[in-house]
Amino acid sequence: MIKLLRWLVRTTVFLLVLLAGPALIAACSTQSGQSWRDADRSSAGIAPLPGQTEEAIVQVYGARAYNWRGNFAVHTWIATKERGASTYEVHDVTGWGYKAVRSRPGEPDTAWYGNPPMLLADLRGEKAGAAIINIRTAIDAYPFANEYKAWPGPNSNTFVAWVIRQVPELNVALPNIAIGKDYLADGVFAKAPSGSGYQFSLNGYFGLMASVREGVELNILGLNIGIDPLTLAVKLPGIGHIGLRDPWMDRSTWHKVPVMEQVSDAN
To answer: How many helices (H) and strands (E) does the chain have?
Structure first.
């Protein structure tokens, strides 16, 4: 009986620790009670204007999810522009509409219902042109095109992680608070989204990842805790990445863009 009580106490304390980050983000949030109809959806001015940029562009973005979900997770999406095109195409997954996957013309860097976007990857030129071809192929092959489940997936982050795994040009490390990225399409083992390591996952509920880009992440009920030695950082549920270096961008694809608020910051 005493052993059982000790186990229950330890389990409760551990779960409270996991939920401390989301609770802190909730306490700092200013979005509570705001209607999605009134939420900001304006451009952040990160992406080059298509009419002023001839080269092909691929960008990956993330922003806090809308309302209380943003205390736990980010929503991610991909934007593409072919060489010479006059508009971007935005690719993401949502929980509304007759089809979960959406690919449509639009501004690539809009706020996600009141939460500012952060640039996670930025490809230009020939590399971006090759990536766009592979992105379209990956989108067509996405196995959950008509499915959406906020937790633990498949959701928007499942979709972006899937596409990244299929496109060799996209060496992208998604935030640990991109809940759903660990929901695998087939089996329990897969490459990490960045392609620089491997992961084990039980339908997104539990798992472990070890990767050069992502570091080490332990997934418990969709909440990821871990370390990233390359960026001298820790990764906390709800809060995200806390470190000394930028973990997101592949430096070979870096372009000068306005400095935006970290996804891991409270909104």
So the answer is: 3, 12
What is the per-residue pLDDT across 43-83, written as a single tens digit (0 to 9) for each?
Answer: 999 999 998 999 999 999 999 999 889 999 999 999 999 99
Q: Which of 146, 140, 226 is nearest to 182 (CA)?
A: 226
Place of tokens 């959806």: 41
3-class SS at 242?
strand
Total residue length of the chain: 267
List the beta bridge partners of residue 223. Answer: 220
DSSP conformation class of 49 = P
Domain boundaries, the chain: 2-253
Distance (Å, rounded) from C-alpha 155 to C-alpha 151? 8
Task: Name which of 172, 168, 215, 209 is nearest 188 in CA terms.
Answer: 209
Tell me the longest C-alpha to C-alpha distance in the chain.
71
